[in-house]
Amino acid sequence: MPSSLFHCLFALLSLKFTANGFEPDFLYPLENVTIAQGRDAIFTCVVNNLGGYRVSADLAPARVAWIKADTKAILAIHEHVITNNARLSVTHNDFNTWTLNIRGVKREDRGTYMCQVNTDPMKSQMAFLEVVIPPDIIYEETSGDMMVPEGGSAKLVCKARGYPKPKVVWRREDSGEIMVRANGVTKARRAQVEGEMLTLNKVTRSEMGAYLCIAANGVPPSVSKRMMLHVHFHPLIQVPNQLVGAPTNTDVTLHCHVEASPKAINYWTRETGEMIITNEKYEMTETSNSYYSVQMSLTIRHLDKSDLGGYKCISKNSIGDAEGNIRLYEMELPKHAKPELGDEDGFLEPGQHLPTGQQGSLRESDGLESGRESSRVNTNGAQSSGQRCTVQTQHHYQLSAALLLLLSSLHVAL
């Protein structure tokens, strides 16, 4: 074979690309995707000038491939899925857009994905798939309801999983403050406390209640678990009024304030020990104020002499008992003294006053007029000060006339 022909054949066989038009190029960069586990992820690769480009000596058209870069696994070429994964699919819009779809994303799908065009040199672009997982409480590693004696310590634990790692915070269900103590001394009062473990030292009854551990990592939804902290102590009774008075034939109510945990049995007795039951005479009620506090009330209807005396409110639970004492006595209604002036029933009419030595006018010149005005106000025969002045003046005239007559009689006798 002539050497010139050999060189031509070698050159023909060595030809890899024949370009008809522009080389393929990416129109947009491949974008990173962050998706929650279980959702669908989509990568979109846009390649221009791919249709008129031919690869190799046989003039084969250029192709777009999808590759998992970190594992170097070929996922799909053009419109055909290569990997054995039913959750993957590829689509092409017959122009310049290729799409890789991953249904129901799992944590193992996380990684770098490559869109590659088999040009020479090869062109590609990559993007990262981040799979996030919403938080979830690990119940087998998390505390449940807890009981501690008053003055003891409690440790509440809350474990959560998810990606990114969830942050756990503690709050009281009633929005109360959480007491944070160090060496038995109150260090701070906080609306919430961070961390998987909540430690409560020297617990008091006021810390009894529901606590919420809330796990969040920025991936909705956040989750929480409710834990009930029971603080046990023996009953305590406070009596607001130990001495109660009421008139007979009226209704009267006695009150006792009870604190106890666990829940106590509460009842009333007479001082003789006779237990009181609800009937037409007695009504007993309990009003809850908190997890451990109730108000006991005993209403006695139509109070009579036999109801007077001592009463006891008693509270008992599994730890101990307590009682409070109340004494009920008769209270007489105030009696109204019968006034000298007034109506026939002994009560003053509106605007009426008992007479005093300083009411009314004391001037002789208007004594009669004052007497008339006072008579209109003070009814039923009441006299005013002006009337008394007029009577006194007339009495003086009568005395003067009697003295003159007596002196005339003595002069004639002499």
From TrEMBL:
The keyword Disulfide bond applies. GO terms for cellular component: neuron projection; plasma membrane. PROSITE patterns: IG_LIKE (PS50835). Residues 1-21 form the signal peptide. Gene3D superfamilies: Immunoglobulins (2.60.40.10). Residues 376-389 have a biased composition (Polar residues). Residues 363-375 have a biased composition (Basic and acidic residues). Pfam families: I-set (PF07679), Ig_3 (PF13927). Residues 339-389 are annotated as: Disordered. It is found in: Cell membrane. Keywords: Cell membrane, Disulfide bond, Glycoprotein, Immunoglobulin domain, Membrane, Repeat, Signal. Residues 24-127, 135-224, 235-329 form the Ig-like domain. This is Ig-like domain-containing protein. It comes from Laodelphax striatellus. The lineage of its organism: Eukaryota, Metazoa, Ecdysozoa, Arthropoda, Hexapoda.
